[in-house]
Amino acid sequence: MNEARLEELKKILNERRQNLEQGSQENSDAQNFDVLNFNTSKSDTSNSNASNFDASDLNNKNSKALNSNDKNSDGPNLNAERGRKFQNLDPDNATLFKNSKTRDYDKEPIIIKNYEKFFVYARLFIILPTSGLPLFLIRDIIDFGYINTYEYLLSCMALLLIAVITYIFTVIRNKREIRFTDQYIEFLDKGVVKRQCKVEEEVLRRNFSTENFRTSSFIVLVVLCVGSLGLFLVALIFMYITNMLLKLIVYFYINHSLKGFKIFPFIKVARPGYGKYLYNAVAISAHYYLIYLYSSEIYNEVKEYFLQKNINIDYIKKDYTVFI
Asked: What predicted TM-score, i.e. pTM, was given to this entire model?
């Protein structure tokens, strides 16, 4: 075989070998490319799944947390709503609540001091003489043309002393009390029940003083005013003024303040009681029928007592008097 033929065969073999090497290289690159693509797609897919999973997870958690917070915030509203529904379903609920606050006055009675005797005595020993002073003042001016101030000063001091003595013996040294129970208002003297008055709305009165104003008394008043040329009317006006001033002074002495002072501080709960004998049947013997509300606290406490009996003492009838 000649050398030209050998060179040609070598050339052909070299070309085939190069082609084979090139083909194997391309196959290897293709495989590597596929592997890379597979890994990349897998990684992207896993990353995508992971991100989707995390996002959905976070959304689920957030939504759960928000729902939980909403439930917690709605808790009081739901409880309030349930409470309203429960109240609507239970019509006696308000009544039961009210009854639960009701005070048992048999177990916890109200006990207050009784000033009745002082004010009954005061109208004869203090108010009547004081209201008569202006009449003597007018007489002196008309008859003598001057006023003896020394005499009136002594008279005022004497009346003041009488008022102090009356207060000591009828209030300070007197152990009279009034007790409010469920059924009765009881008047006690040294712890002994002297009179029981049943609470009756038609009997209750708010008194300006300590007696009733009657038609017969009004007729007597008119006759006296006409007969005395108006002097008795002057005395009557000063009776009311003195009456009010006495209440004001006593109230201030007890409370050291005028807060809660009322012109009508008395509640009459029954007809006046008198002694068995004729000499007891006079004005100063009236007893065990009058309540003096001597402070705003006592007034509110007694008012609550009557409210539990469906009586508002602010609106009960008022009695005025002629002779104090």
From this structure: 0.63
